[in-house]
Specification:
Elements (H helix, E strand, L loop, with lengths): L3 E4 L19 H5 L5 E4 L1 H4 L4 H9 L6 E5 L2 H4 L8 H9 L7 E7 L9 H9 L7 E4 L4 H4 L2 H10 L2 E2 L2 E2 L11 H9 L15 E5 L4 H8 L2 H10 L5 E5 L6 H15 L25
Parallel strand pairs: 1-2, 1-9, 2-3, 3-4, 4-5, 5-6, 7-8, 8-9
Helix pairs in contact: 6-8, 11-12
Length: 283
């Protein structure tokens, strides 16, 4: 029984000295002391080098999990027809091994129900050595979900909902919230799981109490999945993400109150003390 929790990134300027070191190259290692999963958003923009991915594996324990977004050339290049970038992508992520929890097929808002045949062909052509999770942005899928559910069930793939309902419940109150208000999708709520590895992306607010209030519905749902033998992953976003690693651990703790047999997350390592400044010099 395992619940994975994580953020949209493993390094953020506001985390330095608090969750991750202010300098150095081991920030993923420190992040992995707080959370046991991460969204691999950077792979959407560029396929990393084999050396880089090998470094990711070296900085994370075997039970850490990556949900890696497929390259945009694949998912946003035109109805999933051009998959030439996939072979190189699959080659370089090989060092992660079982740390790859799922490959994340995030589709644009222009991808609608009429495009489902191309998604079916795409999923059938992927190697079965990985698990797959699909995120759609067209609200029509949520109003009539059966066709997509049947397609994903046949492929053994999960449907990844992005819960933005709490965020859009009231107008923004900060610069970060106003920016997110313009960029984030207003998605209908979906709480059903299709596989034994459900993945939830949740967007709260900059105010901690609002973020926690908004995820209350998810705590019993995730607890129920754990009792059913599923292994859920819950990603916490806020507009500024300043407290996201700490919020992930709080969500994990709240689920543990309903499922006491769930093992707690390890205690995060202490941050190294900053190097003392030397006496002033003329040079």
């Amino acid at each position: 029984m395992r619940l994975h929790v994580g953020c949209a990134m493993w390094s953020l300027k506001s985390w330095q000295g608090r969750f991750i070191p202010a300098s150095g190259t081991d920030r993923l290692r420190s992040y992995a002391g707080w959370c046991n999963a991460v969204e691999g958003n950077t792979t959407f923009y560029a396929t990393p080098s084999l050396t880089t991915v090998t470094g990711w594996a070296g900085q994370t324990p075997p039970d850490f999990r990556f949900v890696l977004k497929l390259p945009r050339e694949v998912t946003h290049g035109g109805a999933l027809a051009d998959v030439s970038a996939m072979s190189e992508f699959l080659r370089v992520i090989e060092p992660l091994g079982d740390r790859v929890h799922a490959l994340w097929v995030q589709l644009p808002g222009s991808f609608g129900p009429g495009d489902l045949p191309s998604l079916s062909r795409f999923l059938r052509g992927l190697p079965d050595s990985f698990r797959y999770a699909v995120e759609v942005r067209d609200p029509a899928f949520f109003h009539e979900p059966r066709r997509l559910e049947d397609l994903l069930t046949t492929a053994g793939a999960e449907w990844v909902p992005f819960d933005t309902t709490e965020f859009f419940r009231t107008p923004p109150t900060s610069d970060a919230e106003r920016e997110a208000w313009l960029k984030k999708p207003r998605m209908p709520l979906r709480t059903a799981a299709l596989t034994d590895r459900p993945i939830i992306r949740y967007l709260g607010r900059d105010a901690t109490d609002r973020t926690v209030d908004g995820w209350r519905r998810w705590v019993p749902i995730v607890a129920g999945w754990l009792r059913e033998g599923r292994s859920p992953t819950f990603f916490v976003h806020t507009p500024d993400n300043a407290d996201a690693p700490e919020l992930c651990r709080r969500f994990h703790d709240e689920v543990r109150t309903l499922v006491p047999e769930l093992e707690p997350l390890p205690t995060p390592p202490p941050m190294p003390s900053p190097a003392p400044e030397g006496p002033p010099t003329l040079f």
